[in-house]
C-alpha cells in the first residue's frame, strides 16, 4: 500500500490512544425517554447489555417544553402544512411563513428590531462572530466563554484578547486598550458549566463608554439575567440564543438591529451555505416562545426557581456544578453521585483540551425537567410500566482555556 501521503493508520491509532490515556474517552449511549424519564442502555460489569430505568439530571430542557402539548402540536402542524424539510438554504428556496413568524416573535421577546434564524445555536455564534469580526476588528472575550464563541473567534479574522473570567476591571482595561479600532465584547450571560452569571449592566456600561459592540450568548438564561429596558441604550448589541434549551426545540438565532440583521443575512456563511431550519423545529419553537412569554411561562420559571433553591439557595441558574476530584485524579468511569434521591448516569466533558483548572463534576440538576411535576406528569404519554430507578452520573466542569485553545493570530494578546 502506498503510504507516501502519510500513515493514517498510525495517526488515528495515536490520536485515539491519547484520548483514552488521558481518561477523556466519550461514547454515545441510547436513552429512550419521554422528558427526563426513560430507559438507558448500559453495559453491565459482566459485559452484558442492559436497559435501566433512569431519571436524567443531564438535560438542558429547563422548562420541560420538549414534551409540552402545545409545542408538540406546533411541530405537527408545521409538518402537516410544509413537510419535514426546508428544501435548501433560505436564500435559495425562500422562507416558509413559520420562519418569519418565529423571527418576529423572537425579536419581540428580546426587544430588538429583528432576529435572524440559524440551524443551531453553535452556528449562530459562528455566523455572528465571523461576520462582525473582520480584519481590523478587536474581540475581547471572557476566558470561560462557550466553545461556540471560542471557535467563532478562531474563525474570525479579528484580533482576539482574552479577559480573565469575571474580572470586570481587566475587561475594562482590555477594551480601553483597543478602543482605537472597532471592538466587540463577547460574553456568556450564564456560563454553561459553572452556572455563574455575567454583570450585564457593567459590561454594557463599558461598551457604551468605549463605543464597543456587545455580543451576549443567552443560551442558558432561562432565569436571566434579564437586562433592564435601558441597559443597552447607546450600545449596538447582538443577543444570541438557542431554540434547543429553554424552548425545547432545535436551532439558534441572533436578535439585533436592522443593520446587523441585514449584514448577517448577506454575509453569515453558517446560515447562507446550509439548509434552513426545518418547519417542525420552527413550529415547535414558535409555540414554545409563546408559552414562555405567557402566564404559564411565569409559572414554569417559578417552579424551576423553587427547585434550584432547594438544592442551592440563591444560585442564579439551573446549572449547579458539584466538583469531584481533579483532572489528574479522575476515574475513567463516571463517579456515582446522588442528588435529592434522584441521579443521572450521564457523563459530559467540556469541548476543550485539558487545562490546569479542569476538574470533574456530576450532571447539574437542571429542574424542572428532572424533578418538576410540570415536566414529568403534567404532559404525559404512555410511560414505561416500571418506575424510573435513579442512577449516578458525573459531569466534567467546563473550562475553556482560551490561552491554550484559541489559536491566537500574531499580534493578539491575553490579559495578564
Structural class: alpha/beta
What is the CATH architecture annotation of the largest domain? Answer: 3-Layer(aba) Sandwich
Estimate nothing, just give the exact number of structural domains: 2
Contiguous uncertain segments of 5+ residues: 330-401, 403-416
CATH class of the largest domain: Alpha Beta
- Distance from N terminus to C terminus (CA atoms, Å) equals 51 Å
CATH superfamily assignment of the largest domain? Answer: Type I PLP-dependent aspartate aminotransferase-like (Major domain)
Percentage of helical residues?
Answer: 25-40%
Main sheet: strands, sense, barrel:
8 strands, mixed
Describe the structure.
By secondary structure, the chain is an alpha/beta fold. It folds into 2 domains: 30-59 and 322-396, no CATH class; 67-293, Aspartate Aminotransferase, domain 2 (3-Layer(aba) Sandwich), CATH 3.40.640.10. It has 14 helices and 14 strands. An 8-stranded mixed sheet has the order 4-10-9-8-7-5-6-14, with helices on both faces. A 3-stranded antiparallel sheet has the order 1-2-3, with no helix packed on it. Strands 11-13-12 form a 3-stranded mixed sheet, with no helix packed on it.
Amino acid at each position: 500500500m502506498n503510504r507516501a501521503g502519510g500513515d493514517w493508520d498510525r495517526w488515528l491509532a495515536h490520536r485515539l490512544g491519547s484520548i483514552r490515556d488521558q481518561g477523556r474517552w466519550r461514547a454515545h449511549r441510547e436513552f429512550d425517554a419521554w422528558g427526563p424519564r426513560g430507559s438507558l442502555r448500559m453495559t453491565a460489569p459482566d459485559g452484558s447489555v442492559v436497559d435501566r430505568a433512569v431519571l436524567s439530571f443531564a438535560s438542558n430542557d429547563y422548562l420541560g417544553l420538549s414534551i409540552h402539548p402545545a409545542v408538540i402540536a406546533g411541530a405537527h402542524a408545521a409538518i402537516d402544512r410544509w413537510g419535514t424539510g426546508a428544501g435548501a438554504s433560505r436564500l435559495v428556496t425562500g422562507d416558509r411563513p413559520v420562519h418569519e413568524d418565529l423571527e418576529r416573535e423572537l425579536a419581540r421577546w428580546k426587544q430588538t428590531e429583528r432576529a435572524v434564524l440559524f440551524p443551531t445555536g453553535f452556528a449562530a455564534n459562528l455566523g455572528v462572530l465571523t461576520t462582525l469580526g473582520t480584519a481590523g476588528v478587536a474581540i475581547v472575550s471572557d476566558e470561560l466563554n462557550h466553545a461556540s464563541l471560542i471557535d467563532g473567534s478562531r474563525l474570525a479574522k479579528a484580533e482576539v484578547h482574552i479577559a480573565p473570567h469575571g474580572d470586570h476591571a481587566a475587561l475594562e482595561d482590555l477594551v480601553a486598550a483597543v478602543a482605537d479600532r472597532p471592538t466587540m465584547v463577547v460574553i456568556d450571560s450564564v456560563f454553561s458549566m459553572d452556572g455563574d452569571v455575567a454583570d450585564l449592566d457593567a459590561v454594557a456600561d463599558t461598551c457604551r463608554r468605549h463605543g464597543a459592540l456587545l455580543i451576549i450568548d443567552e443560551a442558558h438564561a432561562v432565569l436571566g439575567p434579564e437586562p433592564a429596558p435601558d441597559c443597552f441604550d447607546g450600545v449596538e448589541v447582538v443577543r444570541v440564543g438557542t431554540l434547543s434549551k429553554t424552548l425545547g426545540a432545535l436551532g439558534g438565532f441572533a436578535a439585533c438591529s436592522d443593520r446587523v440583521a441585514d449584514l448577517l443575512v448577506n454575509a453569515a456563511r453558517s446560515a447562507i451555505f446550509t439548509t434552513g431550519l426545518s418547519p417542525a423545529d420552527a413550529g415547535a419553537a414558535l409555540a414554545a416562545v409563546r408559552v414562555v412569554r405567557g402566564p404559564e411561562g411565569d409559572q414554569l420559571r417559578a417552579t424551576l426557581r423553587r427547585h434550584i433553591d432547594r438544592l442551592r439557595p440563591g444560585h442564579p441558574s439551573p446549572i449547579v456544578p458539584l466538583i469531584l476530584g481533579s483532572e489528574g485524579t479522575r476515574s475513567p468511569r463516571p463517579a456515582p453521585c446522588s442528588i435529592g434521591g434522584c441521579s443521572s448516569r450521564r457523563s459530559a466533558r467540556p469541548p476543550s483540551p485539558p487545562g490546569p483548572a479542569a476538574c470533574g463534576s456530576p450532571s447539574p440538576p437542571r429542574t424542572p425537567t428532572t424533578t418538576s411535576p410540570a415536566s414529568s406528569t403534567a404532559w404525559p404519554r404512555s410511560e414505561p410500566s416500571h418506575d424510573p430507578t435513579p442512577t449516578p452520573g458525573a459531569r466534567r466542569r467546563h473550562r475553556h482555556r482560551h490561552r491554550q485553545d484559541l489559536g491566537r493570530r500574531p499580534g493578539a494578546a491575553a490579559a495578564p
